[in-house]
């Protein structure tokens, strides 16, 4: 049964890897395996140094990889769904059997292999300690791996169950945003902790060993020091926790397979919308703006993407400032980051809507209204946030000098952003899975290498758009001429306005001439 | 229509059910979504060897009832027995007795039809030789052999129905539960599927299918139930339910509808 599922998954994976996908898959695999290899060698180095440090380092890495297994699926979209439990709902399989089978199948793939590689550091390290510790290491690594994968499955599954409701979806959006942001504090925590680990702090080492992720290294250490009570205790505890997680996973599977995934009840369309509509002009563009603003709010996936990008844009400068390096230099510019990230993350507007683009294609003259309306709607959401951030944060940071810089560059970025947003959406669209009641942060299809690269390049092009303002600002700074510096603001407005108009026109022409191709491009796979 | 040699139907595997129990017995089934009662106290008995049609307007609760009947949606109340085996108490035994074609089902998209059948059969515990033989026959009969290299993701709607039907037939169940099996299926394939189902019933199997198409139900089925607003308003042999009129007339009368479309819209094509 496990064997059949593994073969099935490998077959599905091999069918999914046609052409260009194979390249990005190989790249991802290389990166993953490199990380696994680095972890392995660091753990090995730790053990070479001394058994106690090795145990601590191994515990740290197992903890980090487990955190990765928890955060990864939340950011990347609901975890590995190559084999969906729904596909087996009609088979006469007991929940426990299905859970065990899916667990086995989830070990086939690149992330698990990279994790195995990382965890093998414990086995290699144990070789320094003797035969018995090595045997213990082999047993406990298997159990620890099961723990990590099962914990990830259970947490993601539980989140998915919570996210079934509308309120839960909002919670999920916030969680996804927080998970995405947690990388930053983790990085600083890592920088702060590295020296402590090497000093072999007993409190920290003890804590790490008491966490479930530290039980495997603790068992190996016990075997090396002859503390067989610790070995037996750790192994039994791991077995027990794995068993509990498996049962929990089976329960979640039953829940998932026997409750409706779709949100059946009538969706509430609030009263607020009527008043919003009256603010917009009763023209085609006004209609598109109204539709877009509603979708940014009602479509959980759009809301998730927008919210994360804005939060990341705000938090990166804040955390960098808190980190000490370049203190308070970044903070005033948070507004600019918001624009950049938002442009980057939501630049697949037609992908979000999927085949709904046919509406635009069959309506004469709708292409122009659609492009302009989408630009305006994005600007109406991101603009105020960025402008408020740009007006408030330099003052908060006490960097009064930053005002002309922020206010000169911001309009240029906003305009270019609104332009590139549509250009990217039309030229380099990619399909997203149909999201009927599924995980709102399920992005499923990744953009693929070329599309991701184009988006990164467009970030650089944003800077090109800001160049006229920047030149004025630099000259103004050098010559200490505030008039020149402040001249950057109207120049930025002009450049931004022109870029939004011109790039939008390019997008519009493309939409007109290659509409059917765009429709084919965004057609979600299944 | 040559339907070739099919897997032997009417031989269930696993549990031996009670001798006289009906193929499907639904008692007091109920399901509520938020404030909407989708299925309200539904009772149905599908006799062994019958061809049973479930008809009703859109949103009447057909799919919800069938989903609960085959263990895909947990009912709020009521019970379902397949050959006497309670679906919600011993789901594994019940699922081995029934073949299901859900509407809008999830299939593993990136497999070919043959791979899908092979893995499904192995997961159902059939031996590999049997699986290979049955898969080949089913693909042949359902005319899917030409699409040998096509992934399910690239199947047309009709092909998806056919491969779904193949997975439902693969383990030779005694009861088939099919949700809208003829929707989006071309006439030739529809005729093939009809012949297969008629042979299945002739050899002692029972079929439950839901449909909007009255003529089809009238022609194929010997029993029919009309469901509307989550309740069964008529059930029994087709002759009895339609009572001298056509099934369509009886249906419109039963669901209390009137055929609209005659009023308003004066601006259209004026």
Task: Characterise the protein shown here.
The complex is a heterodimer of chains A (526) and B (270). Chain A has 526 residues and is an all-alpha fold. Chain A folds into 2 domains: 2-15 and 24-257, no CATH class; 282-522, no CATH class. Chain A is built from 22 helices and no strands. The longest helix of chain A has 32 residues, at 131-162. The radius of gyration of chain A is 26 Å and the shape is globular. Mean pLDDT of chain A is 79; it is low at 262-277 and 436-445. Chain B is an alpha/beta fold and 270 residues long. Chain B has one domain (24-254): P-loop containing nucleotide triphosphate hydrolases (Rossmann fold, 3-Layer(aba) Sandwich), CATH 3.40.50.300. The interface between A and B is medium-sized, with 29 and 36 residues.
Provide a brief overview of the structure.
The complex is a heterodimer of chains A (526) and B (270). Chain A has helices spanning 2-16, 20-49, 51-76, 95-106, 110-127, 131-162, 166-181, 183-198, 202-210, 215-225, 228-258, 272-279, 284-298, 300-322, 334-345, 349-353, 358-362, 366-397, 402-427, 449-478, 482-513, 515-522.
């Amino acid at each position: 049964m496990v064997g059949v599922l593994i073969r099935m998954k490998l077959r599905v994976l091999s069918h999914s890897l046609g052409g260009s996908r194979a390249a990005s898959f190989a790249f991802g695999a290389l990166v993953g395996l490199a990380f696994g290899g680095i972890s392995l060698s660091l753990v090995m180095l730790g053990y070479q140094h001394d058994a106690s440090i090795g145990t601590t380092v191994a515990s740290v890495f197992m903890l980090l990889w487990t955190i990765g297994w928890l955060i990864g699926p939340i950011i990347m979209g609901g975890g590995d769904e190559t084999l969906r439990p729904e596909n087996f709902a009609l088979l006469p399989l007991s929940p426990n059997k299905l859970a065990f089978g899916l667990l086995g199948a989830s070990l086939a793939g690149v992330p698990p292999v990279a994790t195995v590689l990382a965890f093998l550091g414990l086995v290699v390290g144990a070789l320094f300690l003797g035969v018995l510790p090595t045997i213990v290491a082999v047993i406990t690594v298997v159990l620890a791996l099961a723990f990590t994968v099962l914990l990830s499955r259970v947490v993601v599954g539980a989140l998915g169950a919570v996210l079934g409701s509308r309120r839960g979806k909002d919670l999920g959006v916030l969680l996804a945003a927080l998970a995405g942001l947690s990388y930053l504090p983790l990085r600083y925590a890592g920088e702060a902790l590295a020296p402590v680990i090497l000093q072999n702090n007993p409190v920290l080492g003890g804590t790490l060993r008491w966490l479930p992720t530290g039980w495997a290294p603790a068992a190996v250490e016990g075997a090396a020091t002859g503390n067989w009570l610790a070995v037996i205790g750790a192994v039994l505890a791991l077995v027990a926790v794995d068993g509990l997680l498996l049962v929990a996973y089976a329960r979640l599977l039953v829940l998932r397979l026997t409750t409706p995934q779709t949100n059946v009840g009538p969706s509430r369309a609030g009263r607020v919308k009527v008043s919003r509509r009256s603010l917009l002009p009763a023209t085609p563009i006004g209609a598109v703006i109204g539709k877009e603003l509603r979708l940014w709010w009602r479509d959980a996936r759009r809301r998730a993407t927008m919210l994360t990008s804005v939060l990341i844009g705000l938090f990166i400068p804040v955390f960098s400032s808190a980190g000490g390096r370049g203190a308070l230099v970044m903070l005033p510019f948070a507004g600019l980051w918001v624009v950049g990230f938002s442009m980057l993350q939501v630049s697949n507007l037609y992908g979000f809507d999927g085949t709904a683009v046919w509406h635009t294609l069959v309506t004469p003259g709708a292409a122009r209204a659609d492009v302009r309306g989408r630009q305006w709607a994005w600007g109406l959401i991101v603009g105020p946030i960025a402008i408020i951030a740009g007006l408030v944060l330099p003052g908060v940071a006490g960097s009064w000098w930053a005002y002309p810089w922020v206010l000169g560059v911001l309009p240029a970025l906003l305009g270019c952003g609104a332009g590139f947003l549509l250009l990217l959406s039309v030229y380099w669209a990619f399909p997203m899975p149909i999201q009927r009641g599924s995980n709102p942060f399920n992005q499923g299809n990744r953009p693929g290498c070329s599309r991701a690269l184009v988006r990164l390049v467009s970030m650089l092009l944003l800077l090109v758009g800001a160049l006229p303002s920047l030149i004025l600002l630099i000259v103004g700074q050098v010559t200490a001429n505030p008039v020149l510096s402040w001249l950057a603001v109207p120049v930025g407005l002009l450049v931004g306005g022109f870029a939004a108009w011109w790039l939008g026109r390019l997008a519009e022409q493309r939409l007109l001439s290659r509409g059917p191709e765009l429709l084919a491009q965004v057609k979600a796979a299944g | 229509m040559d339907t070739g040699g099919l897997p032997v139907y009417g031989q269930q595997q696993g549990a031996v059910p009670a001798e006289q129990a009906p193929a499907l017995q639904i008692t007091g089934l109920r399901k509520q979504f938020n404030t909407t009662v989708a299925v309200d106290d539904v009772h149905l008995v599908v006799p062994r060897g019958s061809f049973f049609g479930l008809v009703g307007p859109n949103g009447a609760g057909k799919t919800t009832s069938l989903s609960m009947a085959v263990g895909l949606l947990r009912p709020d109340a009521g019970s379902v027995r397949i050959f006497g085996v309670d679906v919600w108490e011993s789901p594994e035994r019940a699922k081995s007795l029934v073949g299901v074609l859900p509407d809008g089902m999830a299939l593993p998209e990136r497999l070919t039809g043959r791979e899908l059948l092979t893995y499904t059969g192995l997961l159902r515990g059939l031996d590999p030789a049997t699986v290979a033989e049955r898969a080949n026959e089913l693909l042949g009969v359902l005319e899917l052999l030409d699409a040998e290299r096509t992934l399910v993701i690239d199947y047309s709607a009709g092909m998806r129905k056919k491969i779904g039907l193949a997975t439902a037939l693969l383990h030779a169940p005694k009861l088939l539960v099919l949700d809208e099996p003829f929707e989006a299926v071309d006439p030739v394939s529809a005729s093939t599927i009809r012949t297969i189902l008629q042979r299945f019933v002739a050899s002692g199997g029972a079929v439950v299918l839901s449909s909007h198409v009255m003529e089809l139900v009238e022609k194929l089925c010997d029993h029919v139930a009309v469901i509307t607003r989550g309740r069964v308003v008529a059930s029994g042999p087709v002759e009895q339910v339609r009572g001298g009129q056509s099934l369509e007339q009886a249906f419109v009368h039963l669901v209390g509808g009137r055929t609209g479309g005659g009023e308003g819209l004066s601006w259209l094509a004026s």
